[in-house]
């Protein structure tokens, strides 16, 4: 991978939004200006005609069409996966970390602070499906994307603190955390997690993570890819399953850490969310099983990572989880990635 340009910030924040600048985006812009970080907002066809926010680089749909990325042409509009364009812009700038969030997550003081790439943490190894949220609370709660029959499964014991490599780091969200529509329809909110817990999920363990409060180090940048030919509510969840499978082959763990944002959730139709999550309720276990059956080669160079991504998404296409148009879009992403990393 190309070396970082020393003139560039260490990290960039990326989100996608169709809203005018709101309190969250204004707070992030101010924080980024103070910390010397880049801030990218990726719009879509429904974005406002005018978007003025100091400290923010906004890319509306028409501006995106001027970018030299094949991903721009193939990615569907009105889909969360257009966030991939923001990743490419940040990667091209030479940053070492990409911090991603959504426009309804108010950042706390630790939101911008990644843990070291190599650290010592309690870990879950060969845990199968793990409801990671339960390490942070005794209450019944589960992350969006966890198979429903695993909600009450016994928690695997955590190891003694051990050395782990964590290039993908998921922070939780307080008040309105990332849970599925069934939880929101049946159980109480707001909700607050224990701030003293950090857990590394290692090879042989599965737990969905989202794109609402996540940091990727440079070596994991290829795993940022969000699939576009699937439900809006599953794109980041299925990305996380692919990433976990490839991460495990490289000896990496996924960090789950305390809440570093407070979510003031945008308006949603919970029944529409439920409908959009059905493909996950029925398919998440099947996806993990299909990914587990693949031969994934270790390696962090882009050709190896790219071939592993192709292998995983071919399995998702063959399983009927994503559309066939995903494969040329993935090829475009990998070609663009090779260019911005050159």
SSE sequence, one letter per element: EHEEHHHEEEEEEEHEEEHEHHH
Average pLDDT works out at 95
Shape descriptor: globular
Question: Could you give a short account of the major beta sheet?
Answer: 10 strands, mixed
**Count of strand segments:** 14
Q: How many helices? A: 9
List low-pLDDT spans: 1-6
The proportion of residues in beta strands is 15-25%
Cα-based radius of gyration, to the nearest Å: 19 Å
Q: How far is the N terminus from the C terminus? A: 7 Å
The percent of residues in helical segments reads 25-40%
Structural class: alpha/beta
In words, what does this structure look like?
By secondary structure, this protein is an alpha/beta fold. It is 32% helix and 18% strand. It has 9 helices and 14 strands. The strands form 3 sheets. Strands 1, 2, 3, 4, 5, 7, 10, 11, 13 and 14 form a 10-stranded mixed beta sheet that branches. A two-stranded antiparallel ribbon has the order 6-9. Strands 8-12 form a two-stranded parallel sheet. α4 packs parallel to α9 (326-341), α6 (235-249) runs parallel beside α7 (270-292) and α8 (302-318) packs antiparallel against α9. Mean pLDDT is 95; it is low at 1-6.
List the main descriptive attributes of the protein structure presented here.
single chain, 342 residues, alpha/beta, ten-stranded mixed sheet, two-stranded antiparallel ribbon, 9 helices, 18% strand
């Amino acid at each position: 991978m190309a070396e970082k340009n020393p003139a560039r910030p260490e990290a960039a924040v990326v989100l996608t939004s169709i809203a005018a600048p709101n309190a969250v985006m204004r707070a992030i812009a101010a924080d980024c200006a103070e910390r010397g970080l880049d801030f990218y907002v990726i719009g879509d066809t429904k974005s406002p005609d005018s978007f003025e926010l100091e400290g923010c680089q906004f890319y509306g749909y028409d501006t995106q069409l001027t970018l030299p990325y094949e991903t721009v042409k193939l990615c569907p509009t009105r889909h969360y996966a257009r966030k991939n364009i923001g990743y490419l812009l940040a990667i091209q700038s030479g940053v070492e970390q990409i911090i991603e969030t959504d426009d309804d997550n108010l950042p706390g003081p630790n939101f911008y602070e990644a843990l070291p790439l190599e650290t010592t943490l309690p870990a879950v190894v060969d845990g199968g499906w793990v409801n990671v949220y339960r390490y942070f609370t005794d209450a019944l709660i589960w992350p969006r994307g966890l198979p429903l029959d695993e909600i009450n499964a016994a928690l695997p014991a955590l190891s003694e603190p051990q050395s782990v490599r964590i290039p993908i780091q998921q922070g939780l969200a307080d008040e309105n955390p990332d849970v599925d529509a069934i939880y929101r329809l049946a159980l109480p909110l707001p909700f607050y997690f224990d701030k003293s817990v950090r857990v590394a999920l290692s090879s042989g363990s599965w737990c969905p993570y989202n794109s609402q409060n996540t940091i990727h180090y440079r070596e994991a940048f290829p795993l940022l890819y969000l699939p576009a030919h699937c439900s809006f509510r599953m794109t980041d969840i299925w990305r996380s399953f692919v990433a976990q499978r490839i991460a495990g082959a490289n000896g990496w763990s996924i960090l789950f850490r305390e809440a570093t944002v407070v979510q003031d959730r945008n308006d949603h139709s919970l029944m529409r969310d439920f409908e959009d999550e059905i493909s996950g309720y029925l398919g998440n276990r099947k996806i993990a099983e299909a990914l587990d059956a693949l031969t994934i080669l270790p390696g962090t160079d882009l050709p190896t990572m790219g071939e592993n991504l192709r292998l995983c998404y071919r399995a998702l296409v063959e399983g009927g989880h994503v559309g066939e148009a995903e494969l040329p879009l993935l090829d475009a992403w990998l070609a663009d990635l090779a260019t911005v990393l050159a």
